[in-house]
Design a protein that fits this description.
The chain has 604 residues and is an alpha/beta fold. The protein contains 19 helices and 14 strands. Helix 6 links the parallel strand 3 and strand 4.
């Protein structure tokens, strides 16, 4: 394979010859873009005024998952009957009311699954079953045979490719001849299923988005006339972007043109079936609904040929994020994902919208800080309004929806690596262990965590953060000089606080009594008498854990000869934790002294 060179990158600007091609010229010479024509030159939509740019989405369209047919055809290992049934039952449980279940004439597995629906009566009465067929008489007949005995509403979905390339190269038909083939298929559908009262009809001009607008309009109007579309028995006209080739606004123009010009419009359910070849299938579907589409076919999480069908889970949750009920239940999205992964035999990407493992996760320090502050404000509003947090309007930075809406906990919202900052680190310690860090300690601790993640090159869990916190602020070890607080008593006599202390300094006990001061001040004063200076600048109380198992945690900001530092102490009470913190600070001060005979402990 020839290695591509980029001289505009590898060669310093000053060393390039004057004749070196510019960036655009270089790219043009490497990428033969001139071989392709844009869709505007192939399909001109005769629409002068557009309504879709000024419209807003206000309600969910009719959703039709096609995972069991279109998605199934795209799998290296198509679903067996057990997987098909499990997927079908998932979609029913989620609330889908119309489900395309297969291509009965394409495989025995699909045929048998449709028969299973008929024989085992596994579909609720309000669920419409859709079956798919080409416009070919023998395949239409087998499709109708497969649905015999189904009491549910049924849609027979017939398709034929109509775009010029498909007409000419694949099918070998001119325009009029292809139209007659399609109408012949429509007549076959009527012959075999026209008298079945629970059956309605759907037609898809495959590759609609590359078909001449006047031609596809003529065919669609001919089909609704043939099938006698009426408001009480509407015909579905499904307009696929079978291969996505244009910007979403072009597809919206095409849908609006059909919406405004179709005959029997009140007897037509206008449907779309976008694919994702350009990566804009979601946008195509949303703009198509603005343009007049009432129904959207796609796959849950976007499986399908090439880059997939439009993702109807993302579409639905996009509505949810705008305050619109998607009419589908995603309250346990991880269970939905597990089922889809089992049936499709491949994993959903961790960055997939809404469902991926990392979509609600922030590693970036600035993002973490914003999320932390957003959570604090959200909870404060809930408290002020005396309402559950789930009922308070959501407004947390970087999280378009509350993860709890789809069954996610907040455990993975903030995760820490070398890119993380103080806000995320503090959030994890507080959310996991209840430890609230003051701002200056957040800054100090973030520096230690940064050193840890840089050294290890990996993410650190909440438990790992606690271990680093303990190592830095709690586990200071015993210095060379033996120093311990043997006992302390605090009494209040006639409004005056008296603190009695017993310090062990290098093996000798020293008693002291302190009146009119608190325990922390008394202890620092007793230590000062032995040349151990612990200047307490600030003291913060928090806890570790919750409930009966929680312990008090005191955080001290101290000053000593070698600068300021933070230290912590823990205990079963606030007083015990505070005294422990002061003693830990004292041990740190003595441990950091130079070994010379400059300031030893005063044992007198």
């Amino acid at each position: 394979m020839t290695k591509t060179s980029f001289p505009h990158i590898s060669t310093p600007a000053g060393d390039r010859p004057e004749s070196a091609p510019s960036w655009n010229q270089q790219r043009y010479s490497q990428m033969p873009s001139h071989r392709y024509t844009n869709v505007y030159s192939r399909v001109e939509v005769p629409i002068a005024e557009r309504d879709w740019p000024t419209r807003q989405l206000t309600e969910a369209p009719q959703w039709v998952p096609v995972d069991l047919r279109d998605g199934n055809q795209a799998l290296a290992e198509p679903m067996d009957p057990a997987r098909k049934r499990r997927f079908f039952e998932l979609m029913v449980a989620m609330g889908y009311k119309e489900i395309e279940v297969g291509y009965p004439s394409a495989s025995q597995t699909d045929y048998d699954f449709v028969r299973q629906i008929a024989d085992a009566d596994i579909a609720p009465d309000d669920v419409t079953i859709v079956v798919f067929t080409p416009a070919r008489r023998d395949l239409i007949e087998r499709t109708v045979t497969s649905i015999q005995g189904i009491s549910n509403p049924v849609v027979i979905h017939m398709y034929t490719a109509t775009a010029p390339t498909w007409r000419n190269l694949v099918l070998g038909y001119e325009r009029e001849a292809l139209k007659e083939l399609i109408l012949a298929g429509g007549r076959d559908v009527l012959e075999f299923a026209g008298d079945m009262p629970n059956v309605r009809f759907e037609f898809s001009p495959e590759v609609f988005n590359l078909t001449e607008p006047d031609y596809v309009l003529d065919i669609c109007n001919s089909m609704t006339e043939l099938w006698d579309a009426r408001p009480e028995r509407p015909v579905i006209l499904n307009l696929p972007a079978t291969v996505e080739v244009a910007t979403p606004n072009v597809y919206a123009d095409q849908i609006e043109y059909m919406h405004k010009n179709l005959a029997r419009r009140d007897s037509v359910i206008l449907s779309v079936h976008p694919h994702n070849d350009r990566g804009t299938g979601i946008a195509c579907a949303e703009l198509a609904v603005l343009a007049g589409a009432q129904r959207v076919e796609g796959c849950i999480f976007g499986n399908g040929e090439r880059t997939g069908n439009v993702d109807i889970a993302t579409l639905a949750l996009n509505l949810h994020a705008q305050g619109i009920d998607p009419m589908i239940d995603f309250s346990d999205i991880d269970e939905i994902r597990r089922t889809v992964e089992y049936c499709n035999r491949f994993e959903v990407h961790p960055r997939h919208p809404y469902v991926g493992d990392l979509v609600h996760t922030a590693f970036s320090g600035t993002h973490q800080d914003a999320i932390k502050k957003g959570f604090i404000a959200h909870r404060a509003r809930a408290s002020a309004e005396d309402r559950p947090e789930s009922e308070v309007p959501w407004n947390v930075p970087y999280l378009p929806i509350d993860p709890a809406d789809i069954g996610r906990s907040y455990d993975a919202v903030i995760r820490v690596n070398s890119q993380s900052g103080k806000g995320g680190i503090a959030y994890l310690l507080e959310s996991e262990f209840g430890i609230e860090l003051p701002r200056r300690l957040q800054i100090d601790f973030a520096r230690h965590v940064q050193q840890h993640t840089d050294a290890n090159g990996s993410e650190v869990s909440a438990g790992g953060l606690l271990a680093v916190f303990q190592q830095v602020y709690l586990d200071r070890g015993t210095p060379v000089e033996c120093l311990a607080l043997n006992s302390y008593q605090v009494a209040d006599t006639e409004g005056v606080t008296r603190v009695e202390l017993v310090l062990d300094v290098s093996g000798r006990q020293h008693r002291s009594t302190h009146d009119g001061v608190g325990p922390v001040e008394a202890l620092t004063s007793a230590l000062e008498a032995h040349n151990i200076s612990v200047g307490v600048l600030s003291l913060h109380q928090t806890s570790v854990g919750a409930g009966n198992d929680s312990e008090a945690l005191t955080l001290l900001e101290c000053r000593s000869d070698d600068g300021t530092f933070w230290i912590a102490g823990r205990g079963r009470s606030v007083l015990a934790a505070s005294m422990s913190a002061v003693m830990t600070a004292a041990m740190r001060v003595t441990a950091h002294r130079k070994p010379a005979n400059s300031r030893g402990l005063d044992l007198q």
